[in-house]
Design a protein that fits this description.
By secondary structure, this protein is an alpha+beta fold. Helix content is 43%, strand content 18%. The N and C termini lie far apart (35 Å).
Amino acid sequence: MPRKIKQLIKDLEKAGFMNRGGKGNHRNYLHPKGVVLTISGKLGEDAKRYQEKLVKAKVEEVRNETKR
């Protein structure tokens, strides 16, 4: 069962990303290390598979930069 958009956002915020706002259903997230990500969709909608992969990759990218 796919995760919801709000769950992806919660993962991003837990990793240190901040919401910079957006237009409509789009939300732009920025991490202090310079990593940027845009999530689209309503909070209660199912996340697309590519969105789940993208969030996972960006969170891992931030974690790997922190270890350096």
